[in-house]
Specification:
- This protein folds into 6 domains: 29 residues; 178 residues, P-loop containing nucleotide triphosphate hydrolases (Rossmann fold, 3-Layer(aba) Sandwich), CATH 3.40.50.300; 85 residues, Elongation Factor Tu (Ef-tu), domain 3, CATH 2.40.30; 71 residues, 2-Layer Sandwich (Alpha-Beta Plaits), CATH 3.30.70; 116 residues, Alpha-Beta Plaits, CATH 3.30.70; 110 residues, Elongation factor 4, C-terminal domain (Alpha-Beta Plaits, 2-Layer Sandwich), CATH 3.30.70.2570.
- Helices cover 26% and strands 32% of the residues.
- The strands form 8 sheets. Strands 13-12-18-9-10-17-14-15 form an 8-stranded antiparallel β-sheet. The chain has a 6-stranded mixed β-sheet with strand order 4-5-3-6-7-8, with helices on both faces.
- The longest helix has 16 residues.
- The N terminus is likely disordered.
- It binds guanosine-5'-diphosphate and magnesium ion.
- Guanosine-5'-diphosphate binds next to helix 3.
Length: 665
């Protein structure tokens, strides 16, 4: 039987709904990328007949676990994961062959605009190897450290990984981090060198690096060019041969792991599931273990490469499910799903992501508070790593303090709020979560504990009751060319890191590991590393708990009025430098007004620095004399528009994006 059956009329009638859905999808996609071919020459056989009124269905019962392979593609940023995913989909006929860089799995606007993957995406494909048809499920993952949580969740639905390494750049910091994510889970790794078409490619050198760092034998390494499509067949063969099939039993009661979910406006939540045992069909009554809620399966299918309905998913397979989960909390990732009244042992779920940076998020207009609340809820369904706390500010009104995995993550989240939900927000200066220990039984009772986590520095308890400050630390890994050893050691020490351990990756590259305060690496560390190493250094970090630290609270004053949103906790050795930098940036970011603005930074009553913004000398519209009314009106209009984007501190108008600009270089 064929993988995807051509349907005789009887089958078509039986599967009317599926047929309709398929027709719908096909119509929708008529002009674009997806070619539903009937190319029997290919290693899989699909038969899609549209014009001649035959229909499509995918019979997944033909794929027992031993004919299924679930794998992720992991790599450092830009090493070619999404390009390889494109080629795998093309080679197996899921999408049409194109000379363009399609990156079909980068679906979000922000991903397309920035050319980065921020969200792991799954796609199924069919491949015949030695006469047996296999169902392969690939997960394309993000490479940036901020999105590691996506990678680790994806790995829970896989039995192996492709570790892609750019043959020109060699092993980079996130290659190391991603390798160990897979290694720690005992997942087999297929090492693949990509970009061998490049002039500067040094496959032998990179193979030596892989051997030195990960004990990978050169003969196990594949060499490909994802861009040109060289070596793709070999990758597919090796996936079948080297990645084990899932251990799953179709006869056991249903057990699924929900490893991802996203929101669609009309159908509610769509969840990615890995079927660990049993069978789940359309119309089944399923139950989520943690929420203990029953849902009826309305649609089920595989991502091919978008939602493609089937009538069931079987043990070992990965696909999506729509089950009337209207409430966002019904589709929390990590949930175990089973049939109603047939509970099974639940999966451990996922370790919650640990937020590294917090910032206040407020609606630009308070009347939009409810709308923003809903937008944040829906977006966090698709991005469960965001940590949410209610917050309010005297100036900015009601809002939230959100925890992110890094500044890029924060930036992407806010961009997505804007692009996908049309939500315009004010963001306060981001900070890392500090901890303090307080004294006095009364105080401990009042604050609910002796150790407090400070998500917002302006909510710090009175300094007189604080006995100890602690700051979050990371274990940082840097890989850089040997000629930059001196600069790398210096910058690590300047950033209050421990003296770095050094391992030679090969004769020309060194890996440094050091414990650094998170606060020191958050903003411009990576940029500085890059500029010191002519662009060659790469950096990755992981959480390394808290350490006691000598912190002080810095307040900023505008004409004597404290700006709560800018209050910072910083290391004492840094206070003056940071204060000067922030005051200078405030000076640049606040437009002149018709009175003098004094910007000051203070620790307690001690003023650290001061900057002034001189008042306007003249009325700016004065130049638009007499006759030129239209120009004058236009200017006044522009000023009024501008004002909408301002907020008032005392009498001073501060642009809304001033705070986020302040921590950026
Ligand atoms: P990802 O961040 O790992 O998903 O990387 P992408 O797939 O987005 O690729 C990053 C860049 O490398 C893109 O500009 C690709 O066109 C390019 N690229 C990917 N594979 C190859 C290859 O085999 N050869 C060359 N020359 N460029 C490639
Ligand atoms: Mg990508």
């Amino acid at each position: 039987m064929n993988t995807i059956l051509s349907c005789p009329l009887a089958r078509l009638l039986q599967n009317r709904h599926i047929a309709n859905r398929c027709l719908h999808i096909l119509k929708k996609k008529k002009k674009d990328l997806y070619r539903y071919s009937c190319d029997h020459e290919r290693s899989f056989s699909t038969s899609f007949y549209l014009a001649n009124k035959k229909e499509v269905c995918i019979e997944l019962s033909e794929f027992p676990p031993e004919h299924v392979r679930n794998f992720s593609i992991i790599a450092h940023v830009d090493h070619g994961k999404s390009t390889l995913a494109d080629r795998l989909l093309e080679t197996t006929g899921v999408i049409s062959v194109s000379s363009k860089n399609q990156q079909v799995l980068d679906r979000l606007q922000v991903e397309k605009e920035r050319g980065i993957t921020v969200k792991a995406q799954t796609a199924s494909l069919f491949y015949t190897h030695k006469g047996i048809k296999y169902l392969l499920n690939l997960i394309d993952t993000p490479g940036h450290v901020d999105f590691n949580y996506e990678v680790s969740r994806s790995l829970s639905a896989c039995q192996g990984v492709i570790l892609l390494v750019d043959a020109n750049q060699g092993v980079q910091a996130q290659t190391v981090a991603n390798f160990f994510l897979a290694f720690d889970r005992d997942l087999p790794v297929i090492p693949v060198l990509n970009k061998i078409d490049l002039k500067g490619a040094q496959p032998n050198v990179v193979m030596q690096q892989l051997h030195k760092l990960f004990d990978i034998l050169p003969e196990d390494v594949l060499q490909i060019s994802a861009k040109l499509g060289t070596g793709i067949d070999e990758v597919l063969q090796q996936i079948v041969e080297r990645i084990p099939s899932p251990v799953a039993d179709v006869k056991k009661p249903l057990k699924c792991l929900m490893f991802d979910s996203w929101y669609t406006p009309y159908r509610g939540a769509v969840a990615s599931i890995a079927v660990l045992d049993g069978v789940v069909k359309k119309g089944d009554k399923i139950m989520t273990h943690h929420k203990q809620k029953v849902h009826e399966v309305q649609e089920i299918g595989i991502m091919y490469p978008t939602e493609f309905p089937t009538h069931a998913l079987y043990a070992g397979q990965v696909g999506y499910i729509i089950a009337n989960m209207k409430n966002i909390k019904d589709a929390l990732v990590g949930e175990t799903i089973y049939h109603q009244n047939k509970p099974t042992e639940p999966m451990p779920g996922f370790k919650p992501a640990k937020p590294m940076v917090f910032a206040g998020i407020f609606p630009a207009d308070q009347s939009q508070h409810m709308a923003l609340k809903l937008a944040i809820e829906k977006l966090t369904l698709n991005d469960s790593s965001v940590d949410i706390h209610i917050d309010n500010s005297a100036v900015l009104g009601q809002g939230w303090r959100l925890g992110f995995l890094g500044l890029l993550h924060m930036d992407v989240f806010i961009t997505r709020l804007d692009q996908e939900f049309n939500a315009s927000v004010i963001v306060t200066a981001p900070n890392v979560p500090y901890k303090v220990t307080i004294k006095g039984a009364k105080n401990i009772k009042k604050y609910g504990g002796e150790t407090l986590t400070i998500l917002n520095p302006c909510k710090l308890p009175d300094l007189s009751i604080i006995t100890e400050f602690m700051e979050p630390m990371v274990k940082g890994t840097i890989i850089a060319p040997t000629e930059h050893i001196g600069e790398m050691v210096n910058i690590i020490l300047e950033r209050r890191g421990t003296y770095p351990e050094q391992t030679f990756v090969d004769e020309s590259r060194v890996m440094f590991t050091s414990h650094l305060p998170l606060n020191e690496i958050l903003v411009d560390f990576f940029d500085e590393l890059k500029s010191l190493s002519s662009g060659y250094a790469s950096f990755d970090y992981e959480d390394a708990d808290y350490e006691t630290s000598d912190l002080v609270k810095v307040n900023y004053l505008l004409n004597g009025k404290e700006v709560d949103e800018l209050t910072m906790l910083v290391h004492v050795s840094r206070a003056r430098d940071i204060a000067v930098r922030v005051c200078e940036k405030l000076q640049k970011n606040i437009p002149r007004q018709n009175f003098l603005i004094v910007i000051q930074a203070a620790v307690g009553s001690k003023i650290l620095c001061r900057e002034d913004i001189k008042p306007y000398r003249k009325d700016v519209t004065a130049k638009c004399y007499g006759g030129d009314i239209s120009r004058k009106t236009k200017l006044l209009k522009q000023q009024a528009e501008g004002k909408k984007k301002m907020r008032l501190i005392g009498r001073i108008e501060v642009p809304r994006d001033a705070f986020i600009n302040i921590l950026r270089k």
